Amino acid sequence: MNERILVVEDEKHLADGLRFNLEVEGYVVETAETGEEALERIVHTHSDPVSLVLLDVMLPGIDGFAVVRRMRELGVFVPVLMLTARGRSEDILKGFENGADDYLPKPFELEIVFARVRGLLRRNAWAASSQTAATAPSPAKNTVLNRLDLDGRIVDFDRMELIDSTGQRQQLTLMETNLLRFLAERDGQTVSRSQLLEGVWGVREDTDTRAIDNFIVRLRRYIEADPAHPRFLTTIRGVGYRFQQNPDT
Q1: Residues 123 and 205 in one domain
Q2: How many angstroms from the chain centroid is the CA of residue 62?
């Protein structure tokens, strides 16, 4: 095991504890105390690349939300597990909206941290192996769960990317991928906001749903020729959304 984990935590006892226990598990661990230091390590240095970031929300200087947002803006899609003392659903959704892959509220159990870390690294390894596989899918795998053809725009769920008609690739975050897959698996069905909150994000249905609307806007930019007049992903006023792969049939 040679995965390198960056722990971004300004409380030294927590950072040292995570570092010690993750190193016992066989990981190579580095620490950073500020968001600026984390971005410098992740984006601007030429040392060994980071495999995963454990990122606290509350940091001196720029906070964890800004760090993960900046990473994604720069095209850095290293998995990010956010750690937050604020367990409110709004904060959880804000982390996902900015590009986080998973979250854990404090205090947390180390075994849960290890399980989440293993899961994110495993997902990243699958994505990497998929990138090196043959690009032509077999007919058996050309299904809604793996690939989706939307008038020449191809969504590859395994690689977490969208390929437009010119061959340009757009990387999707894990949450964007999960949301689109959740809707696509329910092709033609109206899906409520509460179903999305519980099924995709695992949070309560009484959460502010504006974060969902923002995700939908982003997905439309990816999959629609005219996002202002969507064909595939439509709003059902007062209820939720409906995805249709073949809206004209």
Answers
A1: no
A2: 20
Torsion of CA 59, 60, 66, 67, to 10 degrees: -70
pLDDT band at 126 (very low <50, low <70, confident <90, very high): low
Same domain, 106 and 167: no
Domain shared by 159 and 122, yes or no = no
Q: 198-204 — which CB contacts under 8 Å span 24+ positions? A: 200/175, 201/89, 201/92, 201/93, 201/96, 201/175, 203/89, 203/92, 203/93, 204/89
What's the pTM value of the predicted model, to 2 decimals? 0.67
